Amino acid sequence: MWQTTDAVLMVRPAAFGSNPETLDSNAFQHPPDAPRAEIAKQALVEFDGVVEVLRAAGVRVCIVDDESEPRRPDAVFPNNWLSTHESGTVVLYPMEAPSRRNEVRHEVVEALRTQFHYRVERVLDMTPWSSKGMHLEGTGSMVLDRVSRTAFACLSARTSVELLSEFCHELDYAPFAFQASDADGVPIYHTNVMMWVGTQAAAVCLDAVENAAEREKLATRLAHGGRTVLELSRDQMAAFAGNALELRSTDTHPVIAMSSRAAAALTDAAMYGTDQCF
Hints:
Elements: E1 7-12, H1 36-56, E2 60-65, E3 82-84, E4 89-92, H2 98-101, H3 106-114, E5 122-125, H4 138-141, E6 143-145, E7 150-154, H5 161-171, E8 174-178, E9 195-197, E10 201-204, H6 212-222, E11 228-231, H7 234-238, E12 245-248, E13 254-257, H8 260-265
Parallel strand pairs: 1-2, 4-5, 7-8, 10-11
Antiparallel strand pairs: 3-4, 6-7, 9-10, 12-13
């Protein structure tokens, strides 16, 4: 069982921008400070740059284009509505914002099967839960330890503990739910902005977990199997140092993918056990 993958699915955005439907629950998002068209244009430049760097690092990149209508400002984040699993299961998730529910496209799942040759044996469709006011936003809501089969999730309006339990039941994971908030006491909307789990290391902002018992249990569980637990400060979390992803190249070399802002916030990028950090 691998913790990491050598291939990623990316959606090239057609209308990237701030989403007013998600501003209230996402304290990391800010109102736009430039014209919408300018922001969308810059997003395409950055998207193509990420693709180039990933491929140069030996990671296979599967690209699907977003559609111009309906407008999907968050289409560049497909991991929130779709996840793939070694068993051949593809999970579709219930999104909180109505505009984000439009991101769920069955033709993307079909492209995984036919164009990119993923093994798709079962589609677990959890999207109907959104009509009942219950949400679970993929590997934003959950950070998966695929080796020990643990699903870490900080609970929020976007992450239902009931749906976390259903996911774990269907895919044979153990749930690890906890409460976390930013420096202003606002609940952290997605678990993957405060922590990531890799093969030999895991990074987490433990200061965001106010309950001491939960904080200790989280650190202990992350260290399971001999992982090094790297503690992030609140400032580093705010710079998205917790929003990273360990991948591997096609020759199994570890690759840490993160934004340049996140990398700049780290005191020692080499501590992640790889010389590829971007």
